Structure formats: structure tokens, C-alpha cells
Amino acid sequence: MASVQPVPEQWALAPPGTAEVTYDRYWTMLGDPLVEEFVARAQTENLDLAQAVTRLRVARAGLRQARAGFLPTISGTGGAQRDVGDLRRDGVQVSLGADIQWEADLFGRIDASRDAARGDLQAAGYSLGDLERVIVAQVASQVVSARALAAQLAISRETLAYQDDNLQIARWRNQAGLVSSLDVEQARTQRAQTAASIPQLESDLVAIANAISTLIGEPPGRVYRALTEAPRAVPVPPARVALAAPADMLRRRPDVSAAEARLAADLDRIGVARAQLYPLVRLSGTINSGATNVGNLFDIITGNVFAGISQLIFDGGRVRGQIDAARANADGSLAAWRQSILTALEEVETSAVDLDANDARVVALTEASEGAQNAVLLARSQYQAGLIDFQTLLVTESQLLSTRTALVNAQGARARAFIALARAMGGGWSVPEGAAIATQTADNQAAGERGT
């Protein structure tokens, strides 16, 4: 790998960490039961995964077809005939026959076809695993986003209740002649702005819940009720995640393995195309038997065996064109494999830094939110006592709403950054059956085929 695409020994930007992550089930570390439930449903019910499974089945069938090239082809014939006319023979003429053809793979055409099909099967298996990795991360991230939206919605509703009180207090003080109607209008404006944000948050929450429903393969409705009937805080991921070495991470990434398998398959297809330039040796034979009744059918058996060889002499450059096309496809697969490596390295570095940055933001915004909460309590009591004007109260309450919302957003971003990092490290998928058995089973069966 390193000879084709250099891989660093250590991470350049990702901060070092100590928290160990079980990448096979990293989402359980968020401690959210809905994340675990919806991920489990997506792994079994997601329709994109169902389509990928069918592609894996197609690739497995293709490998069986390629392996069949090592074995002879046998077809049978049979018939019954009765003569009519003046010169007819009495009785029914019964005949049986069989044709046999077998290609001697002297120059590796069938062997290369089998290897290419095996690479296709491995690529399909790893692609299925990569899709599972992506969908698991999508489900977990969407649940985190829904939790953050629900928390923002609760903050907005709580703030609206306080602003209702502020509006009432402003009206009482205005009626008493203590303040002008300006305080009333400012309170109305602030309350209306907060009230206007609530329907949008509700709409966004419905949209995310419906997206989760699609990912887990069910109609909308149940997910939204589960999110709203049992609200929870935004999940807190582990901090300072320990990262495996870049080379170890690449071995865990199914997209990198899929790209490598496609490259191997395309290299084998060069051999398939090149084998057309060499002689083709086939053995064929026929066996026939005929009689006037079934009891005498096998008394006389005739047959022949024929060995033929053919060699391409001139085709106008068709085979050479196929070889060049196969080489071009292999070059493209090589570039795609190298690109998958660079993309994996990029995702890990970016996600690790993002997780560290959002963790620092959560710490700072937690302090800011506590300060803003204390400032609002003081401002409300001082306004009711007539010690400050309404504009000062408006500013402090706006700061509180802003810092609380920013804190929830940072908490959601931190959890999503952890999910993105775990996904980038190759977590969230299981070794698909096709990828797991392709090498061992194919090698074992190939040995038997060559013996046949």
C-alpha cells in the first residue's frame, strides 16, 4: 500500500486521546436508548441495505458462473420416431445421446475470469459494509440532531413563558404610570420573535423524525412520538478519543477494502482480455444410442471425441482494444483506491479536530450560560423594583436565549463529531458474508476444480 500511496505513521493534526472506543458498536457509548433502537432497526430494515444485499447476491452468482468454466458442459438429447408410408419400419425408433465440451485453460483465461469475479464479490461485500457504516452514522446523527432540536424547542417555550410575564409586568407598570408604552411595545416585540421561532423548530423536528423513519424502513409517525413523548438531553460522547494508527484505520475501512477489491478484479480482467491472443484448446465428444425398443437401447453405443485448437489471426485490433480498455479501467481503479485512502485520512483528521473543538466550545458555553442565567435573575428583580430600564432586561434575556441555544447546538455538534470520527475510523459495520468467505472458499474450491 505504502509503495503506491504513502500513508503517515502518525496523525498530523488529530489530538492524542485516551478514551477507548468499541467501533463495532460505538453508538452505544452515547447512552441514548433511541439511538440504539433506531440503529438496530436500520441495520435490519433499511431498504438501501436491502438493495445492496441483492447486489451481493448477484456478485456471488457471478462467481459461481465463473467457476463453472473449469468444468465440462454436458447436454443430453433424446427422441422417439415412428415411420409412415410404404417403406416404413415397424415399431418406434428410440434414441438417446449426449454432447460434452470442455475447454482446457492452458493460458489462464478461465482462471483470470474466476479471480475477477471473486474480486467483484469482495467489492460488493465491502460496499454493503460501507453502506451500513454510513447509514448507522446517519441514524445516530439524526437522533442527536432531533435531541438538540427538542432541547431548543423546550428552551424557546420556557423563554416564551418568561416573556409573557415580562409583557404583563410592563403593562402593569405602564398602567401605573411608572414606565412609558415603549416598554410594552418592546416586550411585545421580543415575545413575538420568540413565538415565531417555535413553529420552525417544530417543523424541523418533524422533518428529522420523518428522515429517521425512512432510514429505519417505516412510515412517519412513531419516531416523532418516541422523540417527543420521552425527551432526553443531548447525548454526551466520550472525550479525548484514542485513535488507532493510520494504517490500522485503513484496514478497518470497508470503502478502502472495496476499492482495493475492485482494483484486483480489474487487473484480473486484463488477463482475461490478453488470453484471447493465445490458442484456445477445446475437447468435445458425442455419445449416441438407438433401438426399436427401450430394452435394446444400450445394446449398441456409438460416439466420438474431437480435440480442436483455434488461434486468433486477425480481428482488426478488437482484442488489443479490449486489452487497452481493461488497462485503462485498472488505472482508474488504482486512482480510486488511492483517493479512498486520502479521503479516509482526511475524514479522521477533520473529525478528531472537530470533536476536540466542540468539546472546548461546550465547556466555554456552559460557563457563559450559567453567567447569563444569573444575570437574567438579577435583571428581572431589578426591573420589577424599578432599578433598571426594560432595555437592559431585554439585552440580558436575549443573551441568555442566545447562550443556551448555542450551548445546545455545541452539545449536538460534539456528539455528531464523535459519530463522524467513529465512522471515519471504520466503525459501524460488520464483515459481510460475501467478503468474509470469498477468499477461503474460492481458493479451496479452485483446488478441487483444477483436480477435476
User: What name does the CATH topology carry?
Assistant: Outer membrane efflux proteins (OEP)
Count the strands?
Answer: 4
**Helix share bin:** 55-70%
What's the tally of helices?
Answer: 10
Report on the structure:
With 452 residues, the chain is of the alpha+beta class. The chain contains ten helices and four strands, in the order ααββαααααββααα. A four-stranded antiparallel sheet has the order 1-2-3-4, with no helix packed on it. α2 packs antiparallel against α3 and α2 runs parallel beside α10. The longest helix has 67 residues. The C terminus is likely disordered.
What topology emerges from the helices and strands here?
Layout: H1 33-45, H2 47-67, E1 73-82, E2 92-104, H3 109-175, H4 181-215, H5 222-229, H6 246-252, H7 254-274, E3 280-291, E4 301-310, H8 318-384, H9 390-424, H10 433-451
Antiparallel strand pairs: 1-2, 2-3, 3-4
Helix pairs in contact: 1-3, 2-3, 2-10, 3-4, 3-7, 3-9, 3-10, 4-5, 7-8, 8-9
Task: Summarize this structure as a short list of keywords or feature phrases.
65% helix, Outer membrane efflux proteins (OEP), 452 residues, single chain, alpha+beta
